Here is the input.
Amino acid sequence: MKAKNFNDSRTAALRESGVSEHAGFPNPATDRSLQNLDINILLIRHSASTYLMRIAGNEWRVLGIFNKDIVIVDRALGARANDLVVWWQGENFVISHQNQVPQETETWGVVSATIHQFREKL
Here is the structure.
């Protein structure tokens, strides 16, 4: 797993429908105010210390993290007991729960979110 620093110069302009109880799209005939959704604001707390890492393997599928998913790792966050954290083992990054990291090892960052693509970009 390689770390890539987050570059907040790109933003995605999405629109929030204001309807949170439905899984589908809102009826365009309804008069609801739309709000912009910014991926940077939703997922990135500390852009200077946030890294994107691509997962290799399916060890975390029980948590909904699959092979080739992207984890957002924030080095500025303090780790809590059940957090998923990234730490060094030899020359590789490893993800595990905070309470499973060896005591002599320092955590590198906290997994704050994941991105799962249903269709790969062509």
